[in-house]
User: Fold this.
Amino acid sequence: LKEQAEALCNGARECARRWWLPATSGNFSFRSSAEEGGRIFITASGLDKGSLTPENLVEVDLDAQMVAGEGRPSAETRLHGVIYRDRPLARAVCHVHTIWNTLLSDRFAEAGCVTLEDYELLKALSGVDTLRRREMVPILENSQDYVGLGRTLEEALRLHPAIHGVLLRRHGLYTWGESIGVALRHVEALEFLFEVEGRRLRFAD
Ligand SMILES: [Zn+2]
Assistant:
């Protein structure tokens, strides 16, 4: 567990350094294995992720109820629980607020998704090989009602079993993976692709 907590914190600090978690926003979590209790360890609310350490993680159950730790879990913890419930193989969830994911989530809100097509880096997404080069990232309307948002997220996950991430409009990206390393790789790949797509659209104007 300690090793996983360190790995998650290293990843969060790196994302903060890249300015993907501005002003204490965003949250990262991992799920311990069933033998280790199957609990979620998530960054406590309101912390600067640039100096995150394992002591800053709180332990919660899948319903976002506090189990142990200092501080309080963020309101968005519920969304992590929804992802873990619906994606039994997911062992880590990352949520980042970046300029490009914020811009694209609004630009394509009416279409309902961002479509990423024929990019080499799509292969960085778990299970994607050269034969499948079309990735859809659904966009959900943002809300402060996290119970309602949790339901919308659950629907999107059920409707699209092959997706690797979900965007909340004008808010940020949620992505996950079967390990902390894979979830972090998904953040990096998707954020790269969002920026490429955003810049490509600007060239086309
Ligand atoms: Zn957020």
In short: Strands lie at 27-31, 40-43, 57-60, 66-68, 92-96, 113-117, 134-140, 165-168, 172-177.
